[in-house]
Amino acid sequence: MSVQGEQAPKAPRDVDLTKPSSARIYDWYLGGTNNYAVDRHFGKQADEQFPLIKTLAMSNRQWLGRVVRAALAAGITQFLDLGSGVPTVGNVHEIVAEHAPEDSDPRVVYVDYEHVAVAHSEVILQDESEWAGAVRADLRDPEAVFNDATVQRLVDLSKPVCVLLVSVLNFVGGGDDVPGVLNRYRQRMAPGSWLAISHITTDDAPEDGAAQISALAESYRKTQNPAWLRPRAEFASWFDGMDLVEPGIVHLTDWRPDEVEAVFPDLEKEEVRPFYWSAVGQVR
Ligand SMILES: C[S@@+](CC[C@H](N)C(=O)[O-])C[C@H]1O[C@@H](n2cnc3c(N)ncnc32)[C@H](O)[C@@H]1O
To answer: How many domains does the chain have?
Structure first.
């Protein structure tokens, strides 16, 4: 496991084919093709180290879908997806297009610092530019995100926005001041906005699973994105000063499970259950 006080590396300057990237490895876990040999090689090793990794990635992706649908049902139609990754099944703008109320004016902005992720996001949004866009930025710099022209054009910060940090703070170090970064986002979010976070953990994991995922986190040190596992107390502290949306802080398979799990229908939920914390906080 990476050392708590360390910072994650700087944003990649270009497409780096010498080291696997979390964006492209995750695409491989989900069965995508926007990845390179280094990423596939790492993915296969990860799969051997922790055989639940693909199922875990899929169940995280499904949580993202449930949160987006819940936000829409709660009347929020703007989404800022930080660390959005390579477009794959169940993209936020697709869920929004399908589920947003007819008379609403939905907005979606993807933010990632990995070039392949952003390039592919731009391609799939070519015909959606009136309401959706992709931005290359480091989420650890909230001011750069908010000052970006696409964010300014699409997101109206006087209205509630759902900020998504789905399986991404795993790649932000203790030395990167996660609470401070989150606070800088929260200060710009209108009352009623949602902050949705999922994060890898071992708190309730069986001993063998915890050892496997800790070894996998150690392996991520060789990639562009060293990974951090975090305990519930640290995760919970990120929502201080917010109202937790029901059901509060839970393993992500327990967060409003529903019948619309169309993306990956056959997940073994109980097995993956202990490995992720999830919660949505509402800005007061
Ligand atoms: C595991 S993927 C998660 C993708 C998506 N959020 C999901 O859960 O389906 C993590 C993503 O976070 C991005 N990422 C990591 N650190 C970042 C940072 N500091 N700024 C922007 N993106 C970052 C990676 O490039 C990668 O695309």
So the answer is: 1
Q: Is the CB of 20 under 6 A from ligand 1?
A: no
Ligand 1 center to 82 CA (angstroms): 7
90 residue type, one letter:
G
Give a yes or no: residue 140 inside a domain: yes
Whether 182 is in a domain gets the answer: yes
Output the CA torsion sign for 216, 220, 221, 227: negative
Q: What is the pTM of this model?
A: 0.96
Domain-located, residue 1: no
Residue ranges with strand state E in the chain: 78-82, 107-112, 132-136, 162-166, 194-200, 243-244, 250-251, 276-282
The rounded average pLDDT for each run of 10 residues, N- to C-terminus, in the chain (284 residues) is: 77 88 94 93 96 94 95 98 94 96 96 95 96 98 98 98 98 96 98 98 95 95 94 98 98 88 71 95 98
Question: Would 5 be classed as within a structural domain?
Answer: no
For 38, the domain range is 22-282
Name the residue of 29, 112, 148 whose CB sits within 8 Å of the most ligand 1 atoms, as the mutation to test its pocket.
112
Residue 39, ligand 1, Cβ within 6 A: no
Task: Tell me, in angstroms, the distance from the centre of ligand 1 to residue 236's CA.
Answer: 20
CATH number of the domain encompassing residue 71: 3.40.50.150
